[in-house]
Design goal:
2 domains, Cobalt-precorrin-4 Transmethylase, domain 1, single chain, 7 helices, 5-stranded mixed sheet, alpha/beta, 3-stranded parallel sheet
Length: 223
């Protein structure tokens, strides 16, 4: 989903840096013959830490603004929610006295709360799809959990985080019979949010290519 203000900025801009080129809005930009530059290749650098990825993204945008007087970065959802690039960019732009304008969007978590009638005040954790890497203490199964935006995500080891290996990771903490829900949004022009509930054991088989920009909801579980 995209706001009117964000749409206006994209329509006025000729060159646009983007994340997640599979996003329907980015596909629309290609159709408008915009000069679209995907930055996702940075995530695919084997062994690179996420913090380093965000720093490179911010440096790329600041250098573009210094050379050409303007830089536009299109991020999925709300740039202030689950997006560390924004903070890196804010700090670096301030250091170089470059004005920064942040256009708010609709966060994927807002869509999930609405679609599944979830009250986040009851306690919820939002984790990246690489949750199974490293220390498992970051996952508290007693809380409702949203695994954000899996399908076209890469871990610091260069491994793609897809439904199959995400399922394997989640089985470390949840039984195969635990019911989970995939939430995704159709592309333009309707942007209809959809959901599908399946057993964890069936997650990798239930996931389809058209769900590529999706998140996963897991209800609380107490062993």
């Amino acid at each position: 989903m995209i706001t009117q203000e964000a749409m206006l900025i994209l329509q006025e801009s000729k060159k646009i840096f983007v994340r997640m080129p599979v996003h329907p809005v980015v596909q629309w930009l290609y159709q408008q013959n915009k000069d679209v530059r995907s930055l996702d290749f940075i995530y695919r650098i084997r062994g690179i830490a996420y913090d380093r990825v965000y720093s490179i993204l911010a440096k790329t945008l600041v250098q573009e603004a210094q050379i050409h007087g303007k830089a536009v970065l299109a991020l999925p959802g709300n740039p202030l929610v689950f997006e560390q690039t924004t903070e890196k960019l804010r700090n670096l732009a301030s250091l170089h006295d470059i004005p920064l304008r942040i256009i708010l969007g609709i966060s994927f978590v807002d869509l999930i709360y609405s679609q599944l009638s979830i009250d986040p005040s009851q306690g919820i954790q939002i984790l990246p799809p690489s949750l199974g890497l490293g220390n498992s203490s970051s996952l508290n199964t007693k809380l409702a959990t949203i695994v954000a935006q899996f399908g076209q995500t890469f871990s610091p080891t260069g491994e793609e985080i897809n439904a199959s290996n995400l399922t394997s990771r989640l089985k470390r903490w949840y039984p195969e019979s635990h019911q989970v829900t995939i939430i995704w949004t159709d592309g333009m022009p309707n942007y209809k949010t959809r959901d599908l509930s399946v057993y964890l054991s069936d997650l990798d088989r239930a996931y389809k290519p058209e769900m590529v920009f999706s998140s996963l909801y897991l209800p609380p579980y107490s062993p």
